[in-house]
Amino acid sequence: MNTPRSELPQDVVTGIPDVDEQHRVLLELVTDLTENSDESRDRAFFDRTIAYLKNYIAFHFACEEMVMQTYCYPNLSAHRRQHAALGNSLAQLAAQGAEGPARKLIAGLSFFAEDFWNHHVKIVDREMASYLRTHGPGGEVTLPTVQELTQGSFLPSDFDQNVVQGKRGVR
């Protein structure tokens, strides 16, 4: 991405550097979509970016879920349900957006992002992070690699590692 690195607002910082970095990437993706939302933008741009966002968010959720399982997080089931609901919302948005104008896709994405940031990250993820920091060795929490996620069946074995390495092919 050619834009400067986005700063996370303090009210979404979890205190777990790897989680915060993943949230920063997600913020950049959503910002990239909304800042490039005019109708003159190539439709393929939106499709590629949404596909990348869906894959990256699957990776992000898998990382959180594996760590929560490792540290016996007591709210793991509820957190997984939220991840599933958010993933379903994004999939529905992508399916609806494929059939409609880009502005409709952007409006839906803005609503999705608002829910993700204002409820899931600010409340649910910060609560999770607080627990993990107090239960991790030395207060440190390290997220799993793609290989660990696929071996643990948190991601499919054919998961595209380019998603993690930031190779979007969007531009």
User: Radius of gyration from the CA trace?
Assistant: 16 Å
Helix content: 55-70%
Helix-strand pattern: HHHHH
Q: Mean of residue pLDDT? A: 83
Overall tally of structural domains: 1
Please describe what this structure looks like:
This protein is mostly helical and 171 residues long. It has one domain. Helices cover 65% and strands 0% of the residues. It contains five helices and no strands. The longest helix has 34 residues, at 102-135. The chain starts with 16 loop residues before the first helix and ends in a 20-residue tail after the last helix.
Task: Sum this structure up briefly.
The protein is mainly alpha-helical and 171 residues long. It has one domain (43-163).
Topology:
Blueprint: H1 17-35, H2 43-70, H3 76-99, H4 102-135, H5 146-151
Features:
single chain, 171 residues, mainly alpha, globular
